[in-house]
Design brief:
The protein has 220 residues and is an alpha/beta fold. It is built from three helices and 24 strands. Bound molecules: coenzyme A.
Length: 220
Amino acid sequence: MKKKVIIVGGEGNGGVIASCIEDNQKRYNDYEWEIVGFINDFEEQVCGYPVIGPLSSIKRFLDTTDYYFSWGIHLVGRNVLTEKMYREANIPKNRLATIIHKSAFVAKNAIIEPGVFIMANCYVGPQAIIGSSSLIMANSMIGHNIEMGELCHCSVGAIMTGYSKMGICSDIAVGSTILAYKKIGAFAMLGAASLATHDIPDYEIHVGSPAKFLKRIKED
Ligand SMILES: CC(C)(COP(=O)(O)OP(=O)(O)OC[C@H]1O[C@@H](n2cnc3c(N)ncnc32)[C@H](O)[C@@H]1OP(=O)(O)O)[C@@H](O)C(=O)NCCC(=O)NCCS
């Protein structure tokens, strides 16, 4: 039976989530999810789907429907604000949609918490733990025994080597790599095409190979 999902966000991450659902339907005959529309404070439609309300309307949809929600807001470099909006939305775990592209490999003993999104051609290794509402974009390699906190974002082609960690609401940008046993701190970020050879402290952005401190993230 199709479950109805509202995507929270815009055409960036939200549009990617919609395209995953569409592709699972079209090429893999997988009709687990049906898109009702988007929640967005600024637009009237996103990628051809109606915007059915602003962020403040989430509670009404929780109370009056059985719709699920896919959280697609992840503001790069403004991770504290992202987490604040997520907490305010207060979507219970049993109403979060877990959406995985059919071409992704997910080891059977990996733990995928509610609300996770995994796009095409990703690999998630054995005993990996992926926190709620984390976004794993196409071609990302998520190694064995990694620990990813809630609300993280792995951009296209990012790599977490085995036993590495990501703190809550942290980012690894396009084409970046965390070496084994290293940690990206809470609300921190590893920049595009960068290599984390050391732990990155909470709230800091590091770039380059090996990655060095660039600046702190905005804490608004
Ligand atoms: C980390 C990041 C946010 C920094 O962006 P920024 O704050 O706008 O930084 P700037 O472009 O002003 O660059 C500041 C300096 O850092 C350097 N720098 C920025 N990003 C770098 C990177 N990834 N690797 C190496 N050096 C980098 C710049 O060359 C510049 O150096 P300079 O002062 O010597 O000229 C950006 O590099 C990044 O990774 N963005 C995320 C991309 C992504 O994955 N988006 C999601 C996909 S849709």
